[in-house]
Batch of 2 targets.
Target 1
Amino acid sequence: MAAKSQPNIPKAKSLDGVTNDRTASQGQWGRACCALTGPVVDIVTGHARLSDIWAKTPPITRKAAQLYTLWVTFQVLLYTSLPDFCHKFLPGYVGGIQEGAVTPAGVVNKYQINGLQAWLLTHLLWFANAHLLSWFSPTIIFDNWIPLLWCANILGYAVSTFAMVKGYFFPTSARDCKFTGNFFYNYMMGIEFNPRIGKWFDFKLFFNGRPGIVAWTLINLSFAAKQRELHGHVTNAMVLVNVLQAIYVIDFFWNETWYLKTIDICHDHFGWYLGWGDCVWLPYLYTLQGLYLVYHPVQLSTPHAVGVLLLGLVGYYIFRVANHQKDLFRRTDGRCLIWGRKPKVIECSYTSADGQRHHSKLLVSGFWGVARHFNYVGDLMGSLAYCLACGGSHLLPYFYIIYMAILLTHRCLRDEHRCASKYGRDWERYTAAVPYRLLPGIF
Ligand code: NDP
């Protein structure tokens, strides 16, 4: 499974040969960024100070601020001003006005599901620009990467702070607010459950999907364009990362209605964790493989590339089928077939905040009978595939799988704690029937 990294030949030559000064300075910074251990060792051994690294970091620029403002404004317009038309001609796609889950206070929010449309139009424009219009260079995101990071941070902190103030002074649904008494925790984890401006601008749906996930595939495309500009071609590793992550992104928008029933929307409040996470963490950390491959243009051997592709596709299949099984089961109240059979069910009940008793069902068939969160395993396999596409010569691209393993393990424990207190004895019956959380026989 050999991976050939070609860091030296075209890289130094091309980077030095870049005509655009700004691009060249970004290239220098990026190289320093990829040599992760170098600056740390320099600081530890006293050869450099934090201020030296800070001095090399590109500042925010007027161009980046204009670009970012234009980008966010465009996404806001697509979200608020263009009702979904995709559901009118795409068979099987559920878009337009849809209902979310019942909130703890008993509110059912309506959402305008038009993410697929926004993604398609944005990418159509991107390709039209690259092949016809030439309004901007396809490398524009890479070329302004660090200045854009400052802009993303400004938006991330602004929206988290605004959500906090809004939660205290003019919440959308006061009965769904959570005040812990700890100011810092309130800021981090949020007060309001579903903050909105007006009837339709929903913070959770907008920030996760638009500046976060629409940007993901655009950033990868920009990295691929930069790799071609610097090295003369796009490697198979870059193609794999672009394709596998695009499948994940398109899946998200195709199933945006399903997203309304996930933990992010159903249980988490909107604070810094989601606000800053969507604006900064997601676009900057989830795209590390592409960034790495700009500087280290890995060309994989055919068996390695096929292995990565298969791992990514099998992971995606498990992720999608597991999530679909639960969604179908809940939508049909168990009147469906899972793996061709009537599903096994655990009937359960719980009491909501207003003291009302409710009934629900837990699925014990399909992937939900294999382990209690096998959907996370599929996600982790896909994440590992992105990292393995980058070969084995640097730890940086593996940050993603390490992060996802921590995120999803923590999420699994957090969710199970919540389910145990929600369903009590019924949850114990489920854990007895399906004893493992992620991997049968291991965890
Ligand atoms: P889940 O889709 O696993 O939802 C958990 C909830 O489902 C529980 O709280 C419970 O809710 C219900 N549930 C649990 N077990 C059963 C069962 N056996 N039968 C029926 N319902 C059950 O979690 P997430 O929302 O976290 O994840 C959704 C997907 O998104 C996952 O595939 C995950 O990998 C992915 N994800 C990706 C992230 C990324 O950054 N790439 C981040 C987070 C998630 P209830 O109270 O309704 O019973």
Target 2
Amino acid sequence: MPDRRTFLRALLGTTATLAVPGLWTAGCRREPADAATIAPSLRRDTPTGPTRTVRLRAEEIEVEVAPGHVYRTWGYNGAFPGPELRVREGEQLQVVVENHLPEGTTIHWHGVPVPNAMDGVPGLTQDPIAPGETFTYTFVAAPSGSYLYHSHVGLQLDRGLLGALIIEEITPHVSYDREYTLVLDDFLPGEPRPLTAATPGMRGRGMMGRGMMGGMMGVQVPPYAGSLINGRLPEAAPVFEVRRGERVRLRLLNPSGASTFRFAIDGHALLVTHADGRPVEPVRVDNLLIGMGERYDVVIDADNPGRWAVVAVPVEGTHPPARAVLHYRESRARGLPSGLPETLRGRPLDYSDLKCLEMLPAQRPDRSFDLLLSGGMMMNPRWAINGQAYPDAEPLEIARGERVRFRMVNHSMMLHPMHLHGHFFRVGDALKDTVLVPPHMGRVVFDFVADNPGRWFFHCHNLYHLESGMAREVRYRA
Ligand code: C2O
Ligand code: CU
């Protein structure tokens, strides 16, 4: 396998300097060195390919999550997850959204640095598309990567208004023979409702309503009945077929409402090749944690014939894991492999393992924000940033061209996948758009370049934390 310099040269066409080794690790107490490199938003405005037009109908649908297990919910084009949108990097994407729902909706192109007016945030970038109305989103599909699209209105995402958006690279930095997309989700059979201080389970240990709580005071999860891969419960586990000797790319996407998953495949290591769509120096691990809004691309070597368990175990809450099957054509085995993979106990991915291949030279930040994440406690139930709950919260003001640093510290007992719209940010040596801030005083620092003007949302991607106020507007000064 080529070494890191070869990857960089292949990608940049130069013998570019390597990124500064990261001082930062998940949950670590240190900031990046001041010499940290900062990457730009990577927004592109000029298409280099044809225009692709897609229609998405937001509507009430019937979904069969397992044989005979049908429920009514909302989705796109009759499907849950919605249809996978797949385009080539540089194409112009035109998505015509028809709203057949009884309430207003929008679509957000999670991770793609689109022009502000195309970002799909009600109250910030557009009015919701009214029932019976149509809205067309147009943007250049770039940069390449694995992304999500989803409704950004209320709790609609947790009804199933979500899907995968894949922007294929012109020249991938790793080779593979076949690929699959795995959409990880939590399964809420009923209508989503905000979790409030009055919700049973918020009163502490011993009084918690079964299913409402993960176990501890301060950890509050909706009553999920299970977990899904590509819209299926384990009873209808999807089967991913491979042939011995193949290299298989898996795009792991987590658009779930409120679940962080630990993902592993029995009998196989995961070669992580992309984080939030950005290419990284490939790193081999046994399992990884994937928060709401995060994406990882991994490549597996199909060199261990058989029928293997693919699992995604929620790390907060009590809902059971999602399951799929990795099946070798050569294998005679049938059924659903039971138990949990050995690899779940192996080497986990750490953010400090991620070395992005697109870093730019070092710069100091021009402006920094200290952001304290809190909530979920009896005295202090609202999820907030610096004590303010959106929309009753001041915008974070920045100016075009600045290098901006966010320093976050988590004073709560839950994970917060913090997501910034419109920009990629640098965290350690990785370029991401969503980053998990660990509970119990976990700290994460990220930097970005203010090069995509507008009114952007910055928020926790746990939908229930977002709905309860864990969000801010990031506003460019006029
Ligand atoms: Cu995927 Cu503002 O979110
Ligand atoms: Cu949160």
